[in-house]
Design a protein that fits this description.
about 220 residues, mainly alpha, membrane, transmembrane, transmembrane helix
Amino acid sequence: MDIAIPEIVKENTITFGIGLTVALIGVAVRVVKGLIDFYEEVFVKRYFKRLISLNEHLDEESVSGRYLKLLKENEIFRLASGVKSTPENNNILMEIYILGVASNGELKRLSQYIRSDNMKAAVEVDWFDKLQFTYSFFAATFLFLFGMIMGSANIVMGTGVESIAGFFVMIMFILIAAVVGRDYRTYRILKRVRERLVSLNMVANPDISIQWNFNRLLRAHKIN
């Protein structure tokens, strides 16, 4: 069984090859991150059991007892949300959850961009984060379109078996695009949460942009 290759792909083999290679880098990064997250989750569970064991032999009013109590509370949040951060930052993330602004599953995705600043949330996105958001969007779009082109060609022009193969090729690339597009979806979540927090006057830096502001760049260029 052969997979039919559309003419547009044949005529632009190098372009599609480079695009596919660059887009699939995101898949490799996601796999590595997933393995690291799995290891950390297993480690935290073991660590938490040790904390409970230690706490049983300490006076809760002692310095060590108070320290372990705070540490245990922090690790409970880490176990529940997957977030590894300072107690202060964890408190603001829990407040965001309690307000109903973000779900528990979204907290981990937002944690690297949100920190506590005088009881408010400071949303911090640097140029590399913006680059990740942009890459994620274009790579996912490319993979989705590539999958649609490859799959559609086999579904329309192929035999019964080739049509089924084309359908699976399309589904495979859509799933890969979903993996690569995770960072862009995180950006959309961050944008929504930030706008909601701004309306609640809970953002310490409401004037900071979380994505490329091309109008500002153009104005700055004109001034120079």
